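Exam review. A common question shows you a sequence with its structure tokens and asks you to describe the fold in words. Practice with the pair below. Do the first one on your own.
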Amino acid sequence: MLQRFELPSGTMLSVEEHWPRDPGFPARMSMLSFWLEDVRHGFTVFKRLEEVDEGDVPPGWMKHRLIRFEPMGCSCC
């Protein structure tokens, strides 16, 4: 992700796997996040962590569209 989004070295990255319990969600999903200037950016991939590959990562030009806001109360956020 550092290269894809042209992130400075030392950027905090978070990679998490979740087991949502809400109806309609997969058994596992992965959440990937990074912080730029104290603003969290991230995205969710509806796959197990070990199944996530480069094709699941959004293109670099979407970096500023990946700003994450506070969770909305569902287990996916």
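Now try the second one, then compare your answer with the model answer below.
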Amino acid sequence: MIRKLLTIGLPLAAPFIIYLIWWWAAKRKTLADIDGRKLPAWQELPWAWLIISSCGFLAITLISLATLGIEGADRDYVPPQFRDGKIVPGRLD
């Protein structure tokens, strides 16, 4: 279940979550400009958000690869074969 959530649900929901975060930050900046307040310097630069989000996505990717792993990596692949007039499908041994 968790694998389906990480491989299907997360990639499907990620753009919406990223958009909501961007929308919230843009609205906060607009409201601060209207009120005449200045945001801290790190919040005005898009590079800080890009670096933080890319590090977060890198961590999510590495953790998911480490926990899910590659199934059958230590098994050998036997290609499809033609035996007694029938095709035997390929398999992992």
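Model answer, second protein: The helical segments are 2-35, 41-44, 46-68. Residues 42-68 form one domain. Full marks require stating both points clearly.
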